[in-house]
Amino acid sequence: MLETIDLACARGARELFSGLNVTVTPGLLFAVVGENGSGKSSLLRMLCGLLPGEQGTIRWNGTDIAGMNDEYTQHLTYLGHLNGIKDDLTPVENVQMSAHLSGDDSSAGSAQEALQAVGLGRRVQALPTRVLSQGQKRRVALARLWLSRRPLWILDEPFAALDEGGITLLTQRFKQHLDAGGMAVVATHQEVALPRDSLRYLRLPG
Ligand SMILES: Nc1ncnc2c1ncn2[C@@H]1O[C@H](COP(=O)(O)OP(=O)(O)OP(=O)(O)O)[C@@H](O)[C@H]1O
């Protein structure tokens, strides 16, 4: 369970939000919505422990994440709004590398299966990632979610650049993750097509 208690965030001289109290329990996806610049990415970085809060506490299963380091980060998969992929590597090599770094199954076969699951076939899998379209690159970055066994996913605009088919595939993967007891916090500019009992919206004031 991930909780924020009276969390506040300021960037520069500007306060973005304060008094944020959110509890993310197994089976729930929190969609963080708000205008450009309202602080969605900042909140996600705070939840990962990458950005200190102005005020307040973030707890993982009851313990303040401030003193936890790996004990916390080993439970989470973070995907920033940049894809974090290496252009010179093939999609398969990229997925293998990110899976290896997060301790997931990094075999070539599993990477190929994950890429198939996001709709990238064998021909695209063998190209240098630099020649892929924006949406295909996004799918390469997202493929790691098909290998992640971590309970908490923190994802910054994962739907960006995806076409309708990609959005459907990702939504299905979210559903599997939540049904298996996973949790997610997702910054997004669009509706998430999940059942109401597994979805909460968190609107930042902006
Ligand atoms: N290092 C920084 N120093 C000062 N201000 C910053 C810094 N990083 C971000 N900001 C400001 O904080 C505000 C929130 O930025 P953030 O990226 O969290 O917004 P966002 O809601 O994710 O926006 P978008 O929808 O455009 O992705 C913006 O006004 C941004 O300019």
TrEMBL record:
Keyword Transmembrane helix: no
Keyword Transport: yes
Top-level taxon of origin: Bacteria
GO molecular function, one term: transmembrane transporter activity
BP GO terms, sorted: cytochrome complex assembly
SMART domains: AAA
Residues covered by the ABC transporter domain: 2-204
Keywords: ATP-binding, Cytochrome c-type biogenesis, Membrane, Nucleotide-binding, Translocase, Transport
Pfam families xref list: ABC_tran
Gene3D superfamilies for this protein: P-loop containing nucleotide triphosphate hydrolases (3.40.50.300)
Protein name: Heme exporter subunit ATP-binding component of ABC superfamily
Organismal lineage: Bacteria, Pseudomonadati, Nitrospirota, Nitrospiria, Nitrospirales
Gene name of this polypeptide: ccmA
